[in-house]
Specification:
Helices cover 31% and strands 22% of the residues. The chain is an alpha+beta fold. It has one domain (2-171).
Amino acid sequence: MKIRIQLLTILFILLVGTSANAQDNCNIPIDTNKILYNTNLDFYVNHLKKDTLDTYFDRNKIPSYISKKLYCLIDTLANPDENWQSTDVVYGELQLPWRRLMFLSVNKREDLFVVVYEKGGIGTSTIIIMMKLTDKGIIIDHQKNVEDIWIGQTFFDGKNIPDLVKFIEENRYLGKLNTTGIFF
């Protein structure tokens, strides 16, 4: 019994440890501890409050300078009014996206990108991704570099940045912004 618990613990650590590290080929630095302990969250909340952001409800509005990196992380994304794979039960041969956009926002300086979407599976949850972007470093394929990222998995039903800020401020110390791992 003790060996079984140890094996399950090792398996859990490997799965959690690779959930974010599996995205290395996206060239996005993902600091798991920084995200899970929310040490970079104040930066994002402060910018969400003071920056002017444009909000969109269409995946076609994802800026070209970040689209390839984003799709490297999350693969496909349905628009809010489109069908998507909301459960783990797959019917027929139709391949639907496992994620559905709620909204995305970009600030005027184009150095902050936020995407909020629903993710299907055993249950539906909300994924929040906030990226700090830069033109520094080697620019490949006209894609901005991601200097920092925060990712949360939660249950959020807001429609815009003010809703998101309120949700983060109300839930950040309650353990409701992310789980024990980082999932896209």
